[in-house]
Amino acid sequence: MYLVVEGPIGVGKTTLSRRLAARYGAELNLELVEENPFLASFYSDPAAYAFQVQVFFLLSRYKQLSGLAQGGLFAPGALGGSIVGDYLFAKDFIFASMNLRDHEFELYRDLYTHLSPRLPTPDLVVYLRAEPDVLLRRIERRGRSYEGSISAKYLHTLTSGYDEFFRGYAGRLLTVAAGEIDFVQSPQHEAELLARIHEALGNESAAD
User: Fold this and answer.
1) What's the rounded Cα separation, in Å, for the pair 12 and 7?
2) In what helix (H) or strand (E) does residue 133 lie, and over which residues does it extend?
3) Do the Cβ atoms of 197 and 84 come closer than 8 Å?
């Protein structure tokens, strides 16, 4: 089983991924957001640092996922056998489409097009969707200093980008109205969400 949780900044991807990995005894694969040395500068001056931040994320995520694949964790019958991740490799293209222009975007797209086919496709993507005002409150609550300059306008554009991407997504997808539930604080909401995901995976992918 290869399960991915996706959604915009602040929606709860990592928290849900940790709980799913614990439930299925799966390997947990988290994106290394805070290791990007350009991220804080990007939030302060997006135009100046967009290309650097996007290429770092693209290559970092590719190395992570290709390393898991080469290690045999995606192979049928592999020891451990299951992986839960808090990002989809294709999500990087959503951010690049927002942040890059002209020759920088063309160069990025060439890199993405070359790398993307080499990586495995998830058995299921869980898209956690929430409105920008909900995301902004959650971002403020977790208090990461480099996210302090994120605006409601930016989150609106980002949410629209995610919606557009997943409207055309060809794989197995479960969309969750994450702004209407609190699976972090409510055990009932968590149990209901995990049951929905288990059902969407199917018996062959995730047995009790």
Assistant:
1) 8
2) helix 132-142
3) no
Angle, helices 13-24 vs 187-201, to 10°: value is 70
**CA 204 to each of CA 5, 79, 91, 123: distance values in angstroms, whole numbers, following the listed order:** 19, 17, 27, 11
Residue positions annotated with a catalytic role: 86
- Find out whether 105 and 58 touch, Cβ atoms under 8 Å: no
- For the stretch 138-161, pLDDT in tens is 888 776 766 766 788 888 999 999
How many CB atoms are closer than 10 A to CB 118? Answer: 11
What is the distance between the alpha carbons of residues 165 and 67, in angstroms, rounded to a whole number?
26
- Residue 34: count of CB within 10 angstroms of its CB: 10
Per-domain residue ranges of the chain: 2-170
Model confidence pLDDT, tens digit, residues 36-77 = 899 888 888 888 999 999 999 999 999 988 887 665 555 544
Q: Regarding the domain delimited by 2-170, which CATH topology (the fold level of the hierarchy) does it fall under?
A: Rossmann fold (3.40.50)
